[in-house]
Hints:
Blueprint: H1 28-32, E1 34-37, E2 42-47, E3 73-78, E4 80-89, H2 90-94, H3 103-125, H4 142-145, E5 149-153, H5 159-171, E6 178-181, H6 183-190, E7 195-197, E8 213-215, E9 223-227, E10 239-245, E11 250-262, E12 269-282, E13 288-294
Parallel strand pairs: 1-11, 5-13, 6-9
Antiparallel strand pairs: 2-3, 4-12, 6-10, 7-8, 8-9, 10-13, 11-12
Amino acid sequence: MSSFVxxxxxxxxxxxxxxTNLTPSENQLVSGLxxxxxxxxxxxxxxxxxxxxxxxxxxxxxxxxxxxxTNPSRLLNYTQISxxxxxxxxxxxxxxxxxxxxxxxxxxxxxMKMLKxxxxxxxxxxxxxxxxxxxxxxxxxxxxxxxxxTNQSGVSLSxxxxxxxxxLVWDNGTEVNAAYVPMAIKxxxxxxxxxxxxxxxxxxxxxxxNSVSVYEADAAKMVKLFPHxxxxxxxxxGHNDIVLINEDLFKIAYLRKPFNRExxxxxxxxxxxxxxxxTLECLHQHAGVVGQEHY
Length: 295
């Protein structure tokens, strides 16, 4: 039996115009938090608190009493410059390619996704560092802003512990409406009786268009549950971090919103980079809690 061999050079290769990239790019904070404008690399804002509750009763006709003013506290964060560069040879831009019409445009889109991943990590767990001279400025992320923290040594997160976290934030004056947890914790929460789905969610929250997962409790009416890829970054093995916040009290302040710029041409290639300068506003340090389980 003779074998049949295709030897026609005119036959075009069977190459689909599809390019698959499985690198994760969920950016719940970048896409979900509100935004504001920074005017300087040192971004500042004010926070205040009410006085303690008291018995408030006066005699009829009593003289008015003076109230002692308390000054608001000033909080600050430094802006952080994030950049993602790319380079495409002019030959690559000229040849006929599959899956994309222009390699430069494709690489610019990929660089933007990479930048957003880096921003997500910084927003979650960045450490404050004032930039000066050769020192790179970095912003303080959510986990380092929150002053409410609790550890559960040798105990797995249970529904009762989760509700204790919610109450801790409620006791300090606000209410959790978002939880960022590792996937293992998200799956555990999904099995609790108190968990529910298909709640009424603000349609502007694009993160929840395809999948809604919400937890209801006495101390928090509606907590959106997000599995987060970076909430455990830097956490020791055998630990899980759980970040619960009131998202309304956090904002991304942009000094420069992300943009694409083409760099000066120095050879037979086109170079570009995506750049942004931003920081995180935390309107109050009791706006959430960081919980950690040790298993």
